[in-house]
Design brief:
This protein has a seven-stranded mixed sheet, sandwiched between helices. It has seven helices and seven strands. It starts with a helix and ends with a strand. Helix 5 links the parallel strand 4 and strand 5. The longest helix is centred in the last third of the chain and has 17 residues. The protein is globular and about 40 Å long. The chain is an alpha/beta fold.
Amino acid sequence: MGWWNERVVPRMTHATLDNPIVAGYRRQVCADLAGDVLELGFGTGLNLPHLPSAVRSLTAVEPSDLSWQIAEEAIAASPVPVTRGDLRAEAISLADASVDAVLVTFSLCTVQDPGQALSEARRVLRPGGTVHFLEHGRAPGERVRRWQHRLEPMERAVAGGCHLTRSAPELLEAAGFRLGAVDSWYVPGPAVTRPWGYVSLGRAERPKV
């Protein structure tokens, strides 16, 4: 699966998430970002066009060399300086309390250890700083959840370890963040896509004390 994950999954993910509907969600999740931002799961840079002018710099955690190559044009066009940081979200080399915000979109589903990744995000985030998140995950309806559990082994095999049954809000709370407003909904489309299409968008704060 090494070749598949390295050469196919990045292109497949880019094609799936590069569309006007998701772009609208990206604009929402990036709104009000400011200062020095850490992005977990930078991917192919699809969030870059939506970064506000108040963002001073972006450090990208991205394991895929192909995704980084695909992102080169977007990086070059971005007014925000982008630096590729660590390859794994579970081990971030930035200093404690060194970033103003953390951005994560459609990435907690594939991180090997999301709890450790969010613990690292909390460590490097200044007190009072926020995580802006946009993630798909466990649906509220029992019927859809049953299908998510059935499909998850196949999804993990073909989509780079993607989990369908994780809950981003729950993961953030377990990592010590304080949830703010969270909106959740099904992406418009046929009912058959619902196991993949339940998304949550919101913010979570690192408590000041």
